[in-house]
Amino acid sequence: LQVLEILARGGEEHGRLTVVEGWTIFDISRAIAAVPSLKISEKEALTLLKDPALIKDIDPGAANLEGYLFPDTYFVQVDTTAPELVRSMVARFKNVWSKHLEKTARAASVPAHHVVTAASVIETEAKLAAERPLVASVIYNRLRKGIKLSMDSTVVYASKLAGKWKDDGKVYKSDLDLNSPYNTRKYRGLPPGPVGNPGLSSLKAALEPASTNYIYYVRDPDRNDGAHSFFANSSDFDKAVKKLRDWEERQRKAGLR
Fold first, then answer.
1. Number of structural domains the chain divides into
2. How far apart, in whole angstroms, are the C-alpha atoms of residue 55 and residue 52?
3. Average pLDDT value for residue range 226-245
């Protein structure tokens, strides 16, 4: 993980740890363990991140700190401890929540757990900030219609929880078949908790989705920036999926995939 920059200042060692939008507690535990001055193993760091005590005031039902470790850059002094670093990540989330989100959430009577869970899915599904309100609209439209979300980001998280994720960027049938409440290809509704740590734009999108009738989206092969095309009906969606698969096959034959 290219997250740690050690700087020599006045004879002391300082660290800089950047939590990237969408990172999970597994990613963050590795990053924490990579900071020499913290003197903590990845397993020990993960144990810290699995303790929800720091967030119980905002999300009493939280199972761990997933979703509440705000993506940002954190400076580590030579005497900083791992628990202090984790507390600073949660404190940063609470600051962002109270400043930018809490008023809207209260007005809509939407609990933090719902907002953060939806935002975490939005974060991992939408690479472009402009698309996040659109992805949010797809999520809520599907929830209203009782349609499974069927989003790969949740399948990946389920696989990570089960210790089965191969980390090669591919979702396998064994992943799709996992009997996990996080597997939204198998179970309806949002996953039971966040599947990563969302940034501010995804949190805002979860509270203020675009007003659309979209039910589907698929990556646009005509663009190389991670953009998607959105659809309200399965016929147009199926055509777009075929277009993407044909493009992927051409890329494979050309040795580009």
1. 2
2. 6
3. 96
Shared-domain flag, residues 20 and 101: yes
In angstroms, the CA 186 to CA 160 distance is: 16
Non-local (6+) Cβ contacts of 196 within 8 A are 22, 23, 24, 66, 67, 120, 123, 124, 153, 157
Q: Is residue 43 part of a domain?
A: yes
Give tens-digit pLDDT for 17-71. 999 999 999 999 999 999 999 999 999 999 999 999 999 999 999 999 999 999 9
Residue 84 sits in the same domain as residue 206: yes
CA distance 208 to 137: 9
Neighbours of 255 (CB within 10 A): 6
Would you say residue 181 lies in a domain?
no
Residue 174 lies inside a defined structural domain of this protein: no
Task: Determine the structural domain holding residue 68 and report its residue range.
Answer: 1-149+188-210
Give yes or no: residues 223 and 144 share one domain: no
Residue pLDDT, tens place only, 186-231: 999 999 999 999 999 999 999 999 999 999 999 999 998 999 999 9
The pLDDT confidence band at residue 14, using thresholds 50, 70 and 90, is low
Closest CA to 185 of 173, 170, 202, 197: 173
User: Is 61 a member of any domain?
Assistant: yes
Shortest CA distance to 26 belongs to which of 177, 157, 200? Answer: 157
Q: Same domain, yes or no, for 194 and 92?
A: yes
